[in-house]
Write a structure and sequence with these properties.
With 157 residues, this protein is of the alpha+beta class. It contains three helices and eight strands, in the order E-H-E-E-E-H-E-E-H-E-E. Helix 2 runs antiparallel to helix 3.
């Protein structure tokens, strides 16, 4: 052994990224405010996923109800998180995703990356969001005004 510390990803504690219901503006603001004491950060990048009131087959989406298998999903989020830390020079990262009912206009995904320089924060944030959409086992039921629903299909745009 050469004395370097090696950390196996499975040794790191898997964090719970899920919040019941919408992610509130106050929660987002508080998360941002906590970083003002970290003087080694030069840039933050933030993604907020908001529920749209899409029209599907003449019906308007009123809300999305999110479900998941927590352990499986948190493991996927953990892998995405650790991959981003390995690829980019990040000082901090937070990922929060809603479970349960989130109404149109409310926030259901909050990704917050921080780094010394903006490029790493921006690039990491974008990659994390794309990977969440493609890999995370989180399902959304789009609920219409008449209480009927369809299962949401992720659009990669």
């Amino acid at each position: 052994m050469d004395g370097r510390k090696t950390t196996n990803m499975s040794e790191k504690k898997i964090k719970n990224v899920f919040i019941q219901g919408a992610i509130t503006p106050a929660y987002i603001a508080e998360s941002i405010a906590h970083h003002s004491v970290k003087k080694n950060i030069g840039a933050h990048s933030i993604f907020l996923g908001q529920i749209r009131s899409d029209i599907i087959d003449t019906k308007e989406v009123q809300a999305i109800e999110y479900t998941t298998y927590n352990d499986m999903a948190n493991a996927v989020f953990h892998t995405i998180r650790e991959d981003a830390f390995a690829k980019y020079e990040l000082t901090c990262m937070h990922i929060y995703h809603s479970l349960g009912l989130v109404k149109a206009g409310e926030i259901s995904l909050f990704v917050f990356t921080s780094s010394i320089h903006r490029k790493d924060a921006i690039d990491a944030c974008e990659e994390i969001v794309e990977r969440i959409k493609k890999e995370a086992p989180v399902w959304g039921k789009e609920i219409f005004e008449d209480e009927s629903y369809v299962w949401k299909e992720n659009r990669f745009e």
